[in-house]
Amino acid sequence: MKPADVDTFFARLAAGNPEPKSELAYHNPYTLLVAVVLSAQATDVGVNRATAALFREVDTPAAMVGLGEEGLKRHIKTIGLFNTKAKNVIALSEMLLRDHGGIVPAERKALEALPGVGRKTANVVLNVAFGQPTIAVDTHIFRVGNRTGLARGKTPEEVERKLLRVVPARWRQHAHHWLILHGRYVCKARKPDCPACPVSDLCAYKAKTTA
């Protein structure tokens, strides 16, 4: 995709949603971190359903440690991989208390050192909680990047590198959310809604749907 087309691509997505927000429910950087960890291989809707009561009771690392692993499991048992996720959330909460005074760090290296936190999770927290222009490549962004020709790559990391290179600076802060929402609601996996797509004329996808 040509640089001018990339700029137009994001200008159109921005026109439809000037201030995009995460669809995960959270109260502060800590609950955001927990929600993102829980969202791996799960839907935001499912995570929000499970954390609604949890976050009313727990919104700090100390409170989470006090709740304990078994207590956390009771809240998140509807989420896939809940046993492993509960173990990681308790462990990262203990690490935040021990190494960071109970505060979620705003540095990638420190975030990725936390149990259950990979590059994608760190990118989401850095972007949403701390306003850094990171791009977390999930399945939606990976699909949109490859399908449209915006940023093709064989791995999420490759797509991320290309997006950071091609997305104009003025769009980078919200690019993550625009692409996720576009992939979730328009450029869907099984049948993209090309007739409703605001950037279909810029897209390299050959098998566009007509209805």
Layout of helices and strands:
Blueprint: H1 3-16, H2 29-38, H3 44-57, H4 61-76, H5 82-100, H6 108-112, H7 119-128, H8 139-148, H9 156-166, H10 169-185
Walk me through what this model shows:
The protein has 211 residues and is mainly α. The chain has two domains: 3-20 and 134-202, Orthogonal Bundle (Endonuclease Iii, domain 2), CATH 1.10.1670; 29-128, Endonuclease III, domain 1 (Orthogonal Bundle), CATH 1.10.340.30. 60% of the residues lie in helices and 0% in strands. It is built from ten helices and no strands. The chain has helices at 3-16, 29-38, 44-57, 61-76, 82-100, 108-112, 119-128, 139-148, 156-166, 169-185. Helix 3 packs across helix 4.
Quaternary structure: single chain
Q: Which H/E pattern describes the elements?
A: HHHHHHHHHH
End-to-end Cα distance, whole Å, is 25 Å
Separate helix tally:
10
CATH topology of the largest domain: Endonuclease III, domain 1
Q: Please tell me how large the radius of gyration is.
A: 18 Å
Strand content: under 5%
Tell me briefly what this model is.
By secondary structure, this protein is an all-alpha fold. The protein is 60% helix and 0% strand.
